[in-house]
Amino acid sequence: MFVMRFGIIQIRQYKQGKTKIKKKLPEQIAFGIFFIIILGLIIYSVNDLLFS
After folding, report:
1. Alpha helices, DSSP H, located in the chain
2. pLDDT over 70 at 39, yes or no
3. How far apart are CA 28 and CA 31, in angstroms?
4. How many CB atoms are located within 10 Å of the residue 4 CB?
């Protein structure tokens, strides 16, 4: 839940222009891992609801 809330806050700041995107590889890797974790949690939750 905390991870999803953090993601929502980051997206809002990006839309408002407060977050500057830097073209650094470590930051892109960290964002990719964060995105994969969120997708995994969503898929896990839906799977658990449908096939419980």
Report:
1. 2-16, 25-50
2. yes
3. 5
4. 12
